[in-house]
Amino acid sequence: MERSEVGALVRSAVDGDAAAWKAIVEGLGPLVWSVVRAHRLSDADAHEVYQTVWFRFTQHLDRIREPEKAGSWLASTARHECLKVHRQARRLVLTDDPQLLDTVSEDGAPEQALLETEEAAAKQGERVRRLWQEFEELGERCRQLLRVLIVSPPPSYQEVSAALDIAVGSIGPMRQRCLRRLRARLEGRGTA
């Protein structure tokens, strides 16, 4: 169909001309079907999308600003509706297979997952408590340096040097020694 012909038919359909409406569906129906088929939907989904596209067209018929571009509007709407069906299909897969319906989730029961999460949090909390306990057993100089270095955002070595009165070139090696001591203490307690 020519664009000018489509525009005239849409304007007539807006005014209630049933023959114009029929001509639009007959003339642009194959376009809608070609878009729907290109998305490889099941027959039921394809028919549903086809009907939805025409329903949306009737809803917006009097609001279409460029009636001669109704074919583009229908093709675009068909594509959007097909994509919507694909997105919904990915979220939900229906089955009547009794073997799938009777399987136990690999994730386990929600209660079990909650218990495991709480247990992991308790273990992590205990590890953190032991870490700080061993940290407090380090020498004062190591504790000062490590506390300053773990600040967020981290200070520059010049700022650390000024705050702790340590030469800039000594900060890195001292940091390594302090962390090695802390690791050795933790490993000695079986916590590392």
Describe this structure in words.
Helix 2 (18-38) packs across helix 3 (43-60), helix 3 packs across helix 4 (70-91) and helix 7 crosses helix 9. Helices cover 74% and strands 0% of the residues. 12% of the residues are buried. The mean pLDDT is 86. It has nine helices and no strands. It is an all-alpha fold and 192 residues long. The longest helix is centred in the middle third of the chain and has 27 residues, at 110-136.
How many β-strands, per DSSP?
Answer: 0
Distance between the termini: 76 Å
Q: Helix/strand/pairing class, anyone?
A: mainly alpha
The tally of helices reads 9
Instruction: Write down the Rg.
Output: 35 Å
Average residue pLDDT: 86
The SSE order reads HHHHHHHHH
Helical residues, percent: over 70%
Beta-strand content bin: under 5%
Main sheet characteristics:
none
Low-confidence stretches: none
Question: What overall geometry do the principal axes of the alpha carbons give?
Answer: elongated
How do you describe this structure in short?
By secondary structure, the protein is mostly helical. It has helices at residues 3-14, 18-38, 43-60, 70-91, 98-101, 110-136, 140-149, 157-164, 168-188.
Topology:
Elements: H1 3-14, H2 18-38, H3 43-60, H4 70-91, H5 98-101, H6 110-136, H7 140-149, H8 157-164, H9 168-188
Helix pairs in contact: 1-2, 2-3, 2-4, 3-4, 7-9
